[in-house]
Amino acid sequence: MSFLTVAALAVGLLVVAPVIAHLLRRKPPEEVPFTAVKLVPATPAIAQRRTALEDRALFFVRAIAVLVLAILGATPFVTCQRLSLARQGGASVAITIVIDDSLSMRAAAETEGEARTRFARAKEAAQELLLGLQEGDAVAIVMAGAPPRVGLAATTNLEAARDAVASAQPSDRGTDLEAAVKLAGELMRELSHVDKRVVVLSDLADGGPTAPALEAPEGMKIWVPLEELQGAADDCAVVGAERHGRRISVRVACGPKPEGSPEGEKRRLQVLAGRETLVEVPIRRVDGPQDITVTVPDGANLDTSIQLYVALTAGDAIAEDDIAPVVTMGGKLRVGVATDATESAVATGGPPPVEQAFSALQLGVQVRPLSTVPDRAADLDDLGLLIVDDVPGFTPSQRRELEGWVERGGVLLLTLGPGAASAPIGQGFAPMVPGLIRWRKDPPKGINREQDQLFTEAGGGLEDLAPQGRAELELEPDDEVKVLVAWADGRPFALEHRMGRGVVVALTLPFDTHQSDLALRPGFLELLKRMADTARTLGGVSRSTAGHAWSLQGFDDVKVFRLSRDDDKTPLDVELAPGGKTRRVVPELAGLYLLQLDGNEATRVAAVSEAEVDLRPRPASAGQRGEELGGVEASVDISSHIALALLALMLLEMIIRVGGRRARRLEAAPDAAEPT
Length: 676
Hints:
Elements: H1 3-9, H2 16-24, H3 56-74, E1 81-85, E2 93-99, H4 118-131, E3 138-143, E4 149-155, H5 158-166, H6 177-188, E5 195-201, E6 221-223, E7 236-244, E8 247-254, E9 268-273, E10 276-282, E11 288-295, E12 308-312, E13 323-327, E14 333-338, H7 353-361, E15 365-370, H8 377-381, E16 385-389, H9 396-407, E17 411-415, H10 418-421, E18 436-440, E19 447-452, E20 470-474, E21 481-487, E22 492-499, E23 502-507, H11 522-538, E24 543-545, E25 550-551, E26 558-563, E27 569-571, E28 575-576, E29 583-585, E30 591-597, E31 600-607, E32 630-634, H12 639-668
Parallel strand pairs: 2-3, 2-5, 5-6, 7-13, 14-15, 14-16, 16-17, 17-23, 24-31
Antiparallel strand pairs: 1-32, 3-4, 7-8, 8-11, 9-10, 9-12, 12-13, 18-20, 19-21, 21-22, 22-23, 25-29, 26-27, 26-30, 28-29, 30-31
Helix pairs in contact: 1-3, 3-12, 4-5, 7-11
């Protein structure tokens, strides 16, 4: 509050003036006629009536008038503002409001007055924008936490938009602003409005402070209005914690410390059992991730019935990412690789490309080369992911065991090449890959990037892929088979077949470097990373990132709960994935979750993204903050209303005074009021 505002409101202290004025009014003592008094000598009056307030109605009117006068004096200095759009000639507009609900938005916003988070300010700004929309305007809502979601499809129902914003909640997701802006553009592309805008309500902290400014969708404008949300801040997070006996491996990530920020208190790492601290050690703060090993003393109680947590002591911008549950990992993800080393060798020598790729990715997997595809359940159950590169079909026993293993949650990556097309009689790939396989030596050039649901950004350059041949499938109708990637001519490049709780992904191109250079491209690494992540999710390996769905296909009775440190259970909604066949759960918040699947219990952990601790914003261009797009305007001017109230009080005072004088005259001459 400014000095002028305080000075104007100080006029209200003059409310004591009517009190003083009324108390100073004195009346002579009342004379009571008494005949005997005439026999007593007169003496001067030495007493008066006790001072008291009179005409109380008049007093209260005057006091209120003084207070209203003070408020009227302060109104020029009190501003009530809101975010609003600037219109071009008053025409209707279509906007998509992108609300960032990622973890970084839990940091405090640099605003005056009441302390609040960045998300709370973004949500308030969205509500202010909706207040300024008019009939004929269209609005859509997109949530920018990774992966981005449609909060509300484009509509002219402003009441529905207000309800959608009111129901928005913060999450512990990562940030994907580029995909959110792209999604926002798609929601408005078919609208007839000429003026289309994407309003980004975000701190722009998506882990890419050196990335270029966001690009507006074609034919649209992008507006980033809330500069007060943006600013670097110090934040560290406990990304994950794994227990191995009495040793606990903890991964801590810290964002770059803002320049010129004061040196804070030294952080300490605690291992907690319920509310009891088992061990506490100091840590050295470094920018980026670091792995820390903490040993619990022999005397500490490690009762397996008590859930352990690892926490950082307070002292940074976001408190929600300073604690994480400890999980007991079942070892590394085991990956079996069945391939012909002579066919898949690279020119530079060394292991086959699959093994080299996993070594470079450092995904924490254990690769096991296999001379043949296992045909025993015991050998398969030891694997989470099986990669089979261009084998001449499976024997009946292999098919039977593979089918059961996949349905129990296994993940099979299968490549089809010349060897697969030359399978002998009695061998094949059904039911994993239904249909006949033929090898063609005149393939088209590259994949269709518009139909790529597998490689995504890492698939750049695959449209120029020039293989020596490809496998063609004569697929049987099956609703469970989905084309993930297509060749340039529309034929399947990659298929996904859901079977029970597991999945089979089949490529119509082998990893053989003599057939193509697929194994030497970035898309190959992305493929293996995705398959490992899928195996971890479907196989129940404990940790994934908040916001990414858990597939729960194959179970009839599914219940999921988020567990607090006090073992309170918060149920989550089990939804159907697009297509309506696969059950899934999306953990919005980091923490420990209990899954009850057909009577069996399992625990999983949703962790925070390491990129979210970097609170440095990416830049926004000057055009994205231009006044022609909108700004802050005064939303309420109550000066005229207060002035009218003051005039009404003055009129009321005059009425009370006239009525009071008449009453006093009647009181002074009562006989005159009586009829004769």
